[in-house]
Amino acid sequence: MSTPVPAVVEALEKQLNHELHAANCYLAMAYWCSVNDWDGFAKFFHKQAGEEREHAGKVLDHLVDRGVLPRIGALPAPRHEFPALIEVARTALALERTNTAGINAAYAVAVEHKDYPAQVMLQWFINEQVEEEAWGEKMVAKVERASCGGGSFYLDHHLEKELLGE
Ligand SMILES: [Fe+2]
Ligand SMILES: [Fe+2]
What we know:
By secondary structure, this protein is mostly helical. The chain contains six helices and no strands.
């Protein structure tokens, strides 16, 4: 077993805490959407919250497999109030972009220290972020376009198909 050097452990812990923070942010967005009767968006954000927790779990498992007891840090409170749905979409996109920057930073540390297992693990995240930013950008564009009531209603009911093609 190759135990990671402290700098890599620190970088991975920072990222797993980002992922947990993202999970809480999506949870807050899901409840904002529920309260404002955007049920499709609420469902979508609940699913995202679950995925972000799984992402944190991937990094936690990686550390444990390499003999490290991971530290889960204090998380900032997520934003819970939004003036409109478009602001929720813009916040989600910004969150994903910040997350991508965090993953890239962690990857740079893994490269610097020639930590190949951490690099391979993080490559999954680098790829995942391409999809995450893609739905974030689509969400902002489609919410902006759905300016009339009928358009918004349609988008809320077909959100997953519209964003992920599912
Ligand atoms: Fe994530
Ligand atoms: Fe994400």
